[in-house]
Amino acid sequence: MLLKDKENVVFIDELKKYKSYISFLKILKQYDKECVFLSFGGRLSTVFPMLYILGYRNLYIYELNRIMGKSNKIAKPFCKKVFSYFPLSTAKNVKVIGHPQEDRKRLNYIKERGIKILVLTGSNGTKELYELFDKLKLEHDELDITISEPFKSYKFKSKIKRMPFINSNFYSNYDLIISRAGAGSIADVLRQNIPLVLCPSRHVKDDHQYANSEYLYDNVGIEHFDAEINTKDLYKLLRKELQYDRRITLIENYKKFQHNFVLNNLLESIDNEN
Predict the structure, then answer these.
(1) Is-contact 66 211, C-beta < 8 A?
(2) What is the domain class of 116-256 according to CATH?
(3) Which fold has domain 2-98+261-273?
(4) Is the CA virtual torsion 208, 246, 121, 6 positive or negative?
(5) Which residues partner with 161 through β-bridges?
(6) In CA terms, which of 103, 123, 181, 188 is 20 to 30 Å from 86?
(7) Is 0.90 topped by the overall pTM?
(8) Residue range 74-90: average pLDDT?
């Protein structure tokens, strides 16, 4: 059974109340104790200690960020193994297998003349990115910038291109992507071999986006910047990252962090232990 916060087909309500917690346990108790449970974190991982007490032993968690979330920390002592996307230096019995999105790899042709920039704002601290890139576009109108705009409350002063939703299948239309540093966003860009610069959000728990960014800078060479950067320094950074040789080198470095057959390795590892 796959347990995933907010997307669980068995139980969708968040576990904020004791009654909900008990109701969820009653649902899970309908399954045989040989059933394998895999949680990607969130409040659902907090059910694992009680499952263990009830005799369930095939419990696994999947941590996608560089820093383990609080709920996964609670569940970890009761799990057979932890699967992860990033190495987790503070956790034992961890198997780094990558991100499931990596199984959807796509080839990408790097154009020699890179000019098109895509900014993925995410949902945390969106306004600060609107303001930053709106100002950058006003100062450097020659930059071809498209920004995701899930919220339309901000009034842009520049002629920056805006799209409410950008399907990841169209990321390859751009020469450079600026993105927040959540694991899903990172994997979605890297699987397509598109040059990436990260702007980690400071509005997330445990500052895990900054930890993700630091690891990728140290081990892969992916640059990152804070949203408080001035437009002069941001312009210099983007010009450097758009250079053809730099983009080719960066894509080559991605191999240091990319993984193959992620889901197959996950299932094989679980199967070997049961």
Answers:
(1) yes
(2) alpha beta
(3) Rossmann fold (3.40.50)
(4) negative
(5) 146
(6) 123
(7) no
(8) 91
